[in-house]
Amino acid sequence: MADITRRLGWRHLRGAPTAHIRHHRGTRLLHDGPGLSFWFRALTAAISEVPVDDRELAMTFHARTSDFQDVAVQATVTYRISDPAVAAARLDFSIDPDSGTWRAAPLEQLGTLLTETAQQHALDVLSRTPLSAALVDGVTAVRERIAQGLAGEPRLPATGIEVVAVRVVALRPEPEVERALRTPAREQIQQEADRATYERRAVAVERERAIAENELASQIELARREEQLVDQRGTNARREAEEHAAADAVRAEAEAARTVRLAEAEAARTVRLAEAEATRSVRLAKAEAEGAREVGEARAQAQAAWLRVHGDVDVATLNALTGTRLAENLPRIDSVTISPDVLTGLLTRLGTRE
Fold first, then answer.
1. Which of 25, 54, 109, 234 has minimal CB crowding within 10 Å?
2. Are 124 and 140 in contact (CB under 8 A)?
3. What residues are paired with 23 via a beta bridge?
């Protein structure tokens, strides 16, 4: 729909790129083309707006097959107006200069024309086709027949219409007939499903049996290997015990030999020590004897010299020396206490000597 604005008695039209605008003033064509924008006077202007974009026309109609069964046809026709001037001359695409809306319903007229033409060709092909064939190959046959019929329809080019594509969505029988037709197929599908279920169960049972046999064989093989393992473990334990006994014997022999060697070495060391100690004792004894002899000789010589010296000294000197030597050998006297009785006796003796 064109966008029209009003300014002081004038009108401004702004069209879309997909709308072909034709502006007449009397018998003169002033503007002709898509996406135009211009000013005009409403009292003297005659404007047509023809859409040139692709349009989808959905249609649903009923037909009867050769075996007198009703089917519903769902189809879609894509068309465009290829010649806007011819379409504007054959159909009323004029718009209101104030609102920009169509004065008539041209697209509904085109839809009726296309629907009736397509329905005519679809009825023609379905009336010679039984229901079973129509449900199997009817979609393709009806689509091709409608496309050929619309392409060969002389009224469409005369109206400026070009058919772009034809699509048949579905051919559906009546609900009761459709349910009746579905029943054998459903039964067959159910039988196939049951057979597949039985086969699957049989396969499952066979697999379970195979699995059980494999498990039994595995258990037998495992038991056999366990027996071999027990035997091997016994052999290994016996061999290990023998090896341990042999090792212990070798270790005992080595320990005995080492003990013997240590005893022999200790005895030899003891003998060497005893010999060394005896030798040292003999040497010490010899040294002590030699020392004693030398000391005895020295003492004898000193005693002889002492005797020779004292033989030449008088008796008084010898007494003095004896007293001196005696005093040297007396113990140390720190203090002397003289009692009156002792002092009296000493004084008496001194008086007597005088």
1. 234
2. no
3. 31, 47
pLDDT score of 329: 65
Query: How far apart are alpha carbons 139 and 125 in whole angstroms?
Result: 11
Element (H, E) at 35: none
Which stretch of DSSP H or E encloses residue 89? helix 84-90
Look at 45 and 354; give whichever has higher pLDDT: 45
Give how far Cα 298 sits from Cα of 26, 227, 305, Å.
185, 101, 10
Residue 268 Rama label (left phi>0; alpha psi -120 to 50; beta): alpha
Q: Which amino acid is at 50?
A: V
Overall residue count recorded for the chain in this entry = 354
Q: 45 pLDDT exceeds 70? A: yes
Closest CA to 23 of 6, 46, 39: 46
Place of tokens 């090792």: 247
Torsion of CA 65, 71, 77, 83, to 10 degrees: 50
Backbone dihedral region of 273: left (phi > 0), alpha (psi from -120 to 50 degrees) or beta? Answer: alpha
